[in-house]
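Hi everyone, sorry if this is the wrong subforum. Our group has a chain we'd like a structural model of before ordering constructs, and none of us has done structure prediction before. Sequence below.
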Amino acid sequence: MGLLGELLLLPAAPLRGTAWVLRQVVAEAERQYYDPAAVQRELARLNELLEAGEIDEEEFDRREDELLDRLEKGPRQS
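Answer:
Right subforum, don't worry. Here is the predicted structure as tokens:
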């Protein structure tokens, strides 16, 4: 790109930096959201709620399906 190109793009550096940070935050959030260990913990907690009578079978099934979908889909590949 050369020196002239770098100088012309210099005013956009904060915007490019912000975009990079946002991409990193989204990537980490997705990594945590789709982490199999985290999903397993949530499934265990969901089972505890069902056994304690805090949620009914219908709610359990709905939330369990959502968690299993997360395990199946995994993070987006960019």
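For your construct planning: The chain has four helices and no strands. Helices lie at 2-9, 13-34, 36-51, 57-73.
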